[in-house]
Amino acid sequence: MCGIVGYVGRRNARDVIIHGLEILEYRGYDSAGLAITEGGRISVVKKTGYVARLAKATERMGGGCGIGHTRWATHGAPSEINCHPHTAGKFTVVHNGIIENFAVIKRRLESKGRKFLSETDTEVAACLMDDLYKGDPTEALAAAMKKLKGAFAFAVLCADCPGEIFLMKRHSPLVVGLGDGECFAASDCSAFCGYTDTAVFMKDGEIGVMGEGVFTLYDGNLVKKTVRTEKIGGGAPCGQPAEDFMKKEIFETPAALRDTVNAVFGDDSLKKRIIDIFSKNDKVVMTGCGTAYNACLMGKSLFERVLRVPVEAEFASEFRYKNPIVDDKTVVVAVSQSGETADTLAAVRLAKSLGADVVALTNAGRSAITREADLTLLTAAGPERAVAATKSYSAQAAAFLCVATVLSYDMKTVEKIREEICCLPSLASKALASAGEVKALAALYGKKRSVFFIGRGPDYALAVESSLKLKEVSYVHSEGFAAGELKHGTLALIDRDALVIAIVTQRHTAEKTLSALYEVKARGGKIMIVTPFDDLIAENRFDAVIKTPPSSGLTAPVTAMIPLQLFAYYMSKERGINPDKPRNLAKSVTVE
Q: At the N or C end, where does the chain have fewer CB atoms within 10 A?
C-alpha cells in the first residue's frame, strides 16, 4: 500500500516522479504529493484524489531532485493535510507502512514542545528524525530506525543536503534504480523500468543515500555495505489501455494461462524441485489473503482430487495468531500476487521458524516472499495494475493444477490431465467470447441489492472469489457459499430483489446444486446459472444463463471464472464506478 517514487539526476524530477506515481497508483489513490529541491529550497505540493490532479498542479515545477507519494490512508482521513510528503524542521518525508508505536513517540515529542499538523504516523516519524538530527541525516535515520516499531519504507529530503535522497526500510518494499548520472527509488521497479535496467533491492534494516548517479548503502549501524545490483526488464513502461485495466487484464488471461503452464511443464529442473520439496513432507498448508486465499481454496480442491492428500487452506491474516500446527514435515504454500503482502510474509516467517518448507506462488519474481521461500513458483501473468486481481487468480489456479499433475503418480491420469491443462488458453479465449452476453446481463441486474454465489467443491471456491470480485468493484452486497448451506440460514435473505448465481461445472454435484435453486425460485429470487452443460440449460427454466466452454471438471472452474470476472467488471461500469480504483482498496497490502 502507498507508492513511493524518488529521483536524483539531470532530468526534470517532477516528470519522472509523476510518471512513476501513475504506474504505482494501484497501491493507493486517496491523495498524492511530491517535494522537489530547486535552488536549495524544498517545494511541496499535495492534492487529494488521483495522481492526475497532482500532475496538473505541478506542470511548471522544475528541479533535478525530489520525492513523491500516492497514498492509501491508514492514519488519518484522505486530505491535503494528511497527504505526504510531511515536513518537520529540516526533513521532508514520504512513507509506506505503519509505525506501530507512533502514539508513544508523538506524546514524547509533544512534551518537548513539538507541534503536529496531521493525524498521520508519517509526520511523527519526520519529526523524530528532525529531533534526532545532529548534522548528518544518515545518523538521524539510523537513530530513528532503532526507535520506530512496525513496517516502513522512507524516502527523505534534508534541507541541508540538496541533491540527495535518504532511504530507509524495514518490512516494506523499496528498490533503487541506477542509471547514467541518475538514481531512482520506488516501491516497485516498474516505476522506473523505462529508464534503467539496473536495480538494487534494499534489505530490511538498510539505509541508502542517492546522489546523481551515486548510491551508497549502509546497515543500521552505518557500516558501509557493498551495493549488489540485479538486472530487471527495461524498456518503456505499460501504456494506458483502450478502456480499463481490469477489462484489459481479463482479456490477457489466455496468454497468462499459456505462459504459466509452459513455465511449469517446460522446466524439468523446476519439476524435480517441486517433487523433492513436496515428497519429503507429510502435510500441505496453503495460505494467502483475499483473492490469493480464494486461490488456495481452489488449490486445496485440486490437490485433494488429483493427489488424494489432505490440504489445509488458511487465511494468512489468521495464521500467525492461531498457534498453527506446523512442523518440519510441513510444506506451506504461500500465495501472493505482489509477493509483498504483509500478512502472508508474516505467515511465511512463522512457518519457517517452525521448521516448515515454504513454496511461494507469486507473480513477482523479485519480491520479499521469494527471498524467504525455499522454492518459488512464478505465475507468468505479466503486470496487473487494476486493484481487482483477475488474470493473476486464473494463473494461480492453473499453477496449482500443474503442480498437482507434476506430483501425481498415476501416469495415465497425468497424461490426460496435462492435455486438458494445455487446452486452457484456448478454452479461456472461448470464454471471453461471452463478453457481450455478460454485459447485457449486467445491464439487466445492475440495480440488484444483493447477489449470492453458490457452488459445490471447486465451484464453492469459485463462488467465494466471484463474490469478492463483485463486492470489490461494484459495491453490491454479495456472499459466496457452499450450495448446500443456502437452506441453513441464508435463505432468509432471499426475496424478489435478490439474484442467486449458481456455478455448476461439476457433473456429479449438478443435481444437488439445482435443488437449492428450486428453493430460491419458490421464494421469488432471480436465478442465473454458469455452466458448460447444455442439458441442464435445456431441462430447466432459469432467468439467465452464462454458457461456458465444455471441459473436464478439473479445468472447467478455471475458465468459468472469466465470465464471472467480466460480470463484476460490467456491473461496475453499469453502476458508474471506476473498476480499476475501487474505494478504500489498494492492490498491494503491505501493512497488517
A: C
